[in-house]
């Protein structure tokens, strides 16, 4: 249809007009390549004369075909894209196991100080003493909060930390002539990275079933232990949101069998400043700075996953690490003894270290403990407010920082966990974690974090309750069609996976254009 | 505490709703002797201005890149990042968003990733790219494992021109693996990896420009690898070089791994950085990491989703291609915005400017008595041999306020042959004054 | 010609010494839209219970095990371009691979029509 662009329209428009341009404040945004071209640029640079003699004949002959935008075009493109995202700053993320808490902006400001952002990883150490001191201070906080002997800061994310922790265990066992230990025990409620990490290192994974109350059975662990077992990978608090009540006995049994206790620290937010994992007998634990210590998630990273280590594992920590020398702080960059070497090119995620330490100093030891207690308080509050409408699979223990529900309350409604979660989008919330942990049918895992006010929690609970009652009342269509008010309706994931389109192609280059 | 919304009265009210006598009752599963049974001895919470003062004092003890002439490269490069980039990545909706697993409310991040993948594919000349790795070094290790899965062979040969830290990361990932062959350092561009390829070889790994700055013959490496059924992994630590040099995909590379820090990302003392990984279309099922794809929604509108996720740890668990989960999303955004601002025209000019400045640096260094430039070819980085040991020389330059490069011995301490070698880089930020200051200082120190 | 079933929802349709293996209509329905099939290579020798192929839906990847021991004699190349055949026609056009049966007596240990129907009731 053609629109009258000359005069001001006087009517209310036609009611059967289906907009394909998005809504008023959320216009559909074309791809960068559909807006820009190879001549436009938003950067002014002189055109240098060059002599190609030192390029050895390797200079580019093919064009890149990279579209450019001027600065105003780029600003509008990315601001418009940004508005299609949910974010912590705009609404709650009740996302279990992900700890989406407030990201203080002081952290961002500090990370951008030139003394941190504009220093090179290979500068002479005499010129970066403040950076090494910062790493030392962060290490001190992490070791103190966990009561452990050492910390390897360098892992780039939680999964990388897991990998490092298990590599450290492997190195320690090989050094002790225990290289025949090839089995890693992983509770079936574990996050997928745990078995992936163990398998990555050549271990075979033995699954430990959960008890009916959602916790790990110490007897099941004892039964699975043998001289072939290298380690257990246990998340505590576990992925059902429960503190493992027998964790100390499990640690003792594992150590008694000559194996190590790897703790997945994804849920450290529930216990920081309140319980020290070192007191529970852990040997290694990664800490997601992008969860527990508020470094922003950034739409999927960067994260940071430092690993605290027990005295038994400390000698096997990777390089580089900071050490007090006779003439200031030193950076140890080469492996001594049987340590496992280097797992990333440089010193790890300095930008995240700055943000995390800023957060720690802001909170103080007292504030971190209060944050953990508030996180647990908030989760229990949600569980208490919703327990009468939702089904709670493990009612025996108070929950820690997340509340777990299963889908039995939806039985017979024609509404699935997925549908329910998508309906939450229409109410302005990000969906909760769904179908994880796997040990619960149709799991809904809700983690409010300490950042949410009572007012927000009450609103969230009101919405959840209203949705549950509506589902039970038989109004399935509201759920199966949801979301209706997001920038997109449900997307066709089958189509995306069957014939993957992973980059933009010029329309004239697409196969059908040639036909 | 400014980040915690509850008042004491609200906490009490909430405990009442829960039916708990006090907060400790919620921690009843914790063994009693482990609950708050300690004094942390950590400082108490602190106002913003005091935290800021503490951090500024630490930052102030460091010599920042802008504080004087700066010539360090060796895997991380000091480039200008437009103000727009840092403004945009701090938009709440990008900065504080979660991984885009809920595509209906994550189209901003997803479309950006699709654009990023397209940019990386075009830059490298490959069919497809993933949505990022942690950094170039871990990406290289993942590429090696990917090549082993693809070829079902085990032997991997690393060129002597590969960044020594990258080599060390691959060694750590492949701990105790006798099938890994690391060729000795080749600061003069010597060492022929082509002689080490056989029928057992899964992949060879070649960096260009290499760690010492030399440009390597990718076409020859690809032909030699393919003749034996092996794959060629090309590593690039200075992605700006692709503005001037032929894309590895056009020369026969099977997997390209690059460190993307140079575009959009600050030096940050080593991280966060941005791993780029691109490959041929037929290899995507063995490609690690997240990937974003185009599809349509229930109303037929174009949209984007994370796809092919059955390769990933949350579904395949112990059979996943990698355990990677969180990657470098925001760094990829910074890269993508900066690359969009540059466009082909700007990116090419940027690369030419880098090379022009490096040529000026090389010419000036050649004229310093006691300095020999080892490179016949380079992009923006080169290796020099000095008449005195490099480590102490670099330290003396630092005391003069000049960050004059990286002594190779810092990365290869066991190799006496590199004691007098320095790797230096020039970028668009290098001025003629910087070069003059460096050469004057070197002349005095080497006199 | 007989068809037998495993408790893991593979079927094997026996034609002489060859078995045609796929997944049952019940299984394809439970998995949802199949988006990719990882096929075995022809000539691969399998023991009973070995992983022979992988079928992937958007959210799950499921291993297809060998119902009996034998050697892979043919694979259904059509699935590479059109994995949805497993959804639309699991028992005919959506077969996955053919196996030369090593020991026909192993078939006796599998479920027959009635037993499988009972299992999936």
Count of discrete alpha- or pi-helical segments spanning 4 or more residues of chain B = 12
Structural shape of chain A: globular
Q: Can you tell me the CATH class of the largest domain in chain A?
A: Alpha Beta
Q: Could you say what the CATH topology of the largest domain in chain B is called?
A: Aspartate Aminotransferase, domain 2
Give the total of domains of chain A: 2
Given helix and strand content, the structural type of chain A is alpha/beta
Rounded average pLDDT of chain A? 92
SSE string of chain A, helices as H and strands as E:
EEHHHHHEHEHEHEHEHEEEEHEHEEHHHH
How do the helices and strands follow one another from N- to C-terminus of chain B? HHHHHEHEHEEHEEEEEHHEEHEEH
Q: How many strands in all of chain B?
A: 13
User: Per CATH, what is the topology of the largest domain in chain A?
Assistant: Aspartate Aminotransferase, domain 2
Explain what the structure shows:
The complex is a heterotrimer of chains A (515), B (447) and C (121). In chain A, 33% of the residues lie in helices and 10% in strands. Chain A contains 16 helices and 14 strands. By secondary structure, chain A is α/β, with parallel strands linked by helices. Chain A has a seven-stranded mixed beta sheet with strand order 3-9-8-7-6-4-5, sandwiched between helices. Chain A folds into two domains: 106-361, 3-Layer(aba) Sandwich (Aspartate Aminotransferase, domain 2), CATH 3.40.640.10; 368-489, Aspartate Aminotransferase, domain 1 (Alpha-Beta Complex). Chain B folds into two domains: 65-81 and 344-446, Aspartate Aminotransferase, domain 1; 83-339, Aspartate Aminotransferase, domain 2 (3-Layer(aba) Sandwich). Chain B has helices at 8-18, 48-60, 83-89, 92-95, 107-124, 136-151, 164-173, 218-227, 313-316, 329-366, 390-399, 432-446, and strands at 128-129, 155-158, 180-182, 201-207, 231-236, 255-259, 275-279, 292-296, 302-306, 371-373, 381-386, 406-407, 421-425. In chain B, the strands form three sheets. A seven-stranded mixed beta sheet of chain B has the order 1-7-6-5-4-2-3, with helices on both faces. Chain B has a four-stranded antiparallel beta sheet with strand order 10-11-13-12. In chain B, helix 3 runs antiparallel to helix 10, helix 5 (107-124) packs parallel to helix 10 and helix 10 (329-366) packs across helix 12. In chain C, strand 6 and strand 7 (61-65) form a beta hairpin. In chain C, the strands form two sheets. Chain C has a six-stranded antiparallel beta sheet. In chain C, strands 4-6-7 form a three-stranded antiparallel beta sheet. The interface between A and B is large, with 207 and 207 residues.
């Amino acid at each position: 249809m053609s629109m009258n662009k000359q005069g001001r329209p006087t009517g209310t428009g036609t009611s059967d007009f289906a907009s394909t341009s998005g809504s008023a404040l959320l216009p559909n945004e074309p791809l960068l390549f559909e807006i820009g071209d190879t001549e436009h640029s938003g950067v002014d640079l002189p055109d240098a004369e060059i002599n190609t003699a030192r390029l050895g004949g390797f200079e580019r002959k093919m064009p890149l075909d990279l579209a450019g935008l001027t600065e105003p075009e780029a600003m509008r493109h990315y601001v418009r894209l940004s508005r299609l995202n949910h974010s912590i700053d705009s609404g709650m993320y009740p996302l279990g196991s992900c700890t989406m808490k407030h990201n203080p902006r002081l952290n961002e400001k500090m990370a951008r100080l030139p003394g941190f952002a504009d220093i090179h990883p290979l500068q002479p150490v005499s010129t970066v003493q403040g950076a090494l001191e910062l790493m030392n201070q962060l290490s001190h906080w992490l070791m103190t909060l966990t009561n452990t002997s050492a910390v390897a800061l360098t892992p780039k994310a939680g999964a990388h930390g897991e990998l490092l922790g298990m590599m450290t265990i492997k190195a320690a066992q090989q050094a002790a002539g225990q290289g025949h230990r090839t089995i890693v025990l992983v509770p079936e409620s574990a996050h997928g990275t745990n078995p992936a990490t163990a398998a990555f290192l050549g271990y075979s994974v033995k699954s430990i079933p959960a008890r009916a109350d959602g916790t790990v059975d110490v007897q099941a662990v004892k039964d699975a232990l043998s001289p072939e077992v290298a380690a257990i990978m246990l998340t505590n608090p576990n992925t059902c949101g429960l503190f493992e009540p027998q964790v100390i006995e499990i640690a003792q049994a594992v150590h008694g069998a000559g194996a190590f206790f790897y703790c997945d620290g994804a849920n450290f937010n529930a216990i920081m400043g309140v319980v020290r994992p070192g007191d529970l007998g852990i040997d290694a634990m990664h800490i997601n700075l992008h969860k527990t210590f508020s470094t922003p998630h950034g739409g999927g990273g960067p994260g940071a996953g430092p690993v605290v280590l027990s005295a038994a594992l400390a000698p096997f920590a990777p390089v580089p690490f900071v050490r007090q020398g006779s003439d200031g702080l030193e950076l140890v960059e080469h492996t001594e003894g049987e340590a496992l070497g280097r797992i990333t090119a440089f010193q790890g995620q300095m930008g995240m270290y700055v943000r995390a330490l800023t957060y720690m100093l802001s909170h103080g030891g007292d504030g971190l403990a209060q944050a953990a207690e508030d996180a647990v308080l908030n989760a229990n509050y949600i569980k208490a407010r919703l327990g009468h409408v939702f089904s709670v699979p493990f009612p025996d223990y108070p929950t820690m920082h997340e509340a777990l529900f299963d889908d039995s309350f939806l039985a017979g409604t024609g509404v699935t966990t997925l549908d329910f979660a998508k309906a939450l989008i229409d109410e302005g919330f990000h969906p909760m974690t769904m179908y994880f942990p796997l040990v619960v049918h149709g799991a809904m895992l809700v983690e409010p974090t300490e950042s949410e006010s009572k007012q927000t929690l009450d609103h969230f609970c009101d919405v959840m309750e209203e949705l549950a009652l509506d589902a039970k009342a038989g109004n399935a269509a509201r759920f199966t069609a949801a979301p209706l008010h997001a920038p997109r309706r449900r997307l066709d994931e089958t189509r995306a996976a069957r014939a993957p389109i992973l980059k933009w192609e010029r329309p004239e280059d697409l196969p059908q254009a040639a036909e | 505490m400014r980040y915690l919304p509850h008042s004491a009265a609200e906490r009490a009210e909430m405990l009442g709703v829960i039916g708990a006598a006090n907060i400790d009752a919620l921690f009843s599963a914790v063994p009693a002797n482990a609950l708050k049974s300690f004094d942390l001895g950590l400082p108490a919470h602190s106002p913003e201005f005091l935290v800021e003062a503490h951090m500024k004092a630490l930052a102030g003890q460091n010599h920042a890149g802008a504080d004087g002439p700066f010539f360090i490269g060796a895997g991380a490069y000091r480039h200008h990042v437009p103000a727009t980039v840092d403004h945009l990545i701090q938009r709440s909706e990008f900065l504080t968003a979660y991984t885009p697993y809920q595509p209906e409310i994550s189209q901003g991040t997803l479309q950006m990733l699709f654009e990023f993948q397209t940019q990386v594919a075009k830059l490298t000349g490959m069919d497809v790219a993933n949505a990022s790795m942690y950094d170039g070094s871990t990406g290289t290790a993942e590429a090696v494992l990917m090549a082993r899965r693809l070829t079902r062979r085990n032997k991997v040969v690393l060129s002597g021109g590969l960044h020594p830290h990258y080599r060390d990361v691959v060694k750590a990932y492949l701990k105790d693996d006798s099938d890994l062959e690391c060729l000795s350092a080749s600061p003069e561009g010597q060492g022929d990896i082509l002689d080490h390829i056989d029928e057992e070889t899964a992949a060879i790994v070649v960096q260009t420009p290499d760690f010492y700055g030399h440009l390597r013959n990718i076409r020859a490496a690809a032909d030699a690898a393919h003749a034996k059924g092996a794959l060629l992994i090309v590593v690039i630590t200075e992605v700006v070089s692709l503005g001037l040099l032929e894309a590895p995909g056009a020369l026969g590379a099977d997997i390209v791994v690059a460190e993307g820090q140079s575009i959009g990302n600050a030096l940050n003392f080593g991280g966060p950085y941005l791993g780029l990984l691109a490959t041929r279309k037929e290899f995507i099922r063995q490609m690690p990491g997240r990937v974003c794809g185009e599809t349509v929604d229930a109303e037929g509108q174009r949209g984007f989703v994370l796809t092919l996720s059955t390769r990933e740890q949350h579904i395949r668990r112990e059979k996943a291609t990698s355990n990677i989960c969180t990657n470098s999303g925001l760094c990829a955004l910074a890269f993508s915005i900066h690359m969009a601002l540059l466009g082909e025209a700007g990116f090419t000019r940027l690369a030419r400017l880098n090379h022009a400045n490096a040529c000026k640096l090389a010419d000036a260094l050649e004229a310093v008595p006691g300095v020999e430039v080892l490179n016949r070819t380079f992009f923006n980085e080169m290796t020099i041999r000095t008449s005195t040991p490099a480590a102490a020389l670099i330290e003396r330059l630092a005391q003069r306020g000049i960050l004059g490069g990286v002594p190779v011995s810092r990365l290869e301490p066991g190799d006496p042959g590199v004691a007098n070698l320095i790797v230096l880089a020039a970028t668009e930020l290098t001025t003629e004054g910087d070069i003059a200051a460096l050469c004057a200082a070197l002349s005095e120190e080497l006199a | 010609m007989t068809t037998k079933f495993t408790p893991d929802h593979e079927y094997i349709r026996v034609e002489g010494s060859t078995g045609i293996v796929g997944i049952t209509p019940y299984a394809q329905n439970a998995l949802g839209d199949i988006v990719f099939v990882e096929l075995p290579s022809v000539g691969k020798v399998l023991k009973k219970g070995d992983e022979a192929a992988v079928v992937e839906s958007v959210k799950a990847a499921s291993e297809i095990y060998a119902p009996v021991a034998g050697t892979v004699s043919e694979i259904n190349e059509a699935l590479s371009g059109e994995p949805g055949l497993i959804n639309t026609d699991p028992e005919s056009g959506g077969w996955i691979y053919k196996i030369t049966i090593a020991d026909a007596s192993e078939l006796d240990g599998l479920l027959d029509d009635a037993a499988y129907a009972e299992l999936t009731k």
